[in-house]
Amino acid sequence: MEQENKTAVSEFLLLGLSEKPEHQIFLFGLFLPMYLVTIFGNLLIILAIITDSHLHTPMYFFLCNLSFIDIFLSSTTIPKMLVNLWTQSKAIPFAGCLAQMYAFHLFGTMDSFLLAVMAIDRFMAIVHPLHYLAIMSPRVCGLLVVGSWLTTNLQSTVHTSLMAQLTFCAASVLPHFFCDLMPLLKLFCSDTHTNELVIFAFGIIMGISPLTCILLSYICIFWVVFKIPSAQGKWKAFSTCGSHLTVVNLFYGTIFAVYLQPASPTSLKKDKVAALMCGMVIPMLNPFIYSLRNKNMKAALRKLVSKVVPSQS
């Protein structure tokens, strides 16, 4: 009897953010402009950094990578959600579902690793300013980014490989707007004990490692900055960290607000909110945070815009 309830699933149905037809057009009209702002804003940051030689420093190299990741992170889930909202179709192929899960966890985890790498960069710049450029050489910066890519790729590959080997039940309805790991795991008929252990292990390693790195870096930064006698010197040191700290607070604040609460009937809704925040809202806000509070970035953006739209005299 148990065997009869198992089937080879060819596609899944994504229930999305709302099943009410009257909400579909509203959600489409809300998320399409947000997605376009996310893509356009992060592309501007990348182009500004590439075209301005004054921004060819470790801090902006990592920011360029963060913008690159944010474009792909939001593009992993939002375009498919927009298509489903517009066409009223909820289907996603099995292979597409696994690919979406792989990409979301790859770019989402990469986001946290890059925030940790950027914290290390600020630590080196403030605590060891005289040796900063020697320590944070192009080779070291490249190795930090490549190492982050390899680590996050390993996690996503393991999760996807284990998921592909399991047997799904006849029901293939996902109460989510994309193929997330935990909702997908609940559709299995076969034993998921190994998957759960791997998720727990990677969750501890991939979750705690970047956060620990960020906390230790800023503890050292605060310790050094508080020793600076002048208020102007303190402000100058902290001003280089303001944008990064804002993004860190948004990213981890969302995660803590959702996942450090006991399970409840509204847990699924909270999961959707967290996925939207980390997958679209924060990537959309990052360009504004890093440009509005950074004189060098604002100057580079003005220079870039003046090249694209030359002033008429």
Automatic annotation (TrEMBL):
The chain crosses the membrane at residues 25-50, 62-82, 102-120, 132-150, 162-185, 197-225, 237-261, 273-292. Its main location: membrane. Gene3D superfamilies: Rhodopsin 7-helix transmembrane proteins (1.20.1070.10). InterPro entries: GPCR_Rhodpsn, GPCR_Rhodpsn_7TM, Olfact_rcpt. The keyword Transmembrane helix applies. Keywords: Cell membrane, G-protein coupled receptor, Membrane, Olfaction, Receptor, Sensory transduction, Transducer, Transmembrane, Transmembrane helix. One of its GO terms (molecular function) is G protein-coupled receptor activity. GO terms for cellular component: plasma membrane. One of its GO terms (biological process) is signal transduction. The keyword S-adenosyl-L-methionine does not apply. Putative odorant or sperm cell receptor. This is Olfactory receptor. The lineage of its organism: Eukaryota, Metazoa, Chordata, Craniata, Vertebrata. The gene is OR1I4.
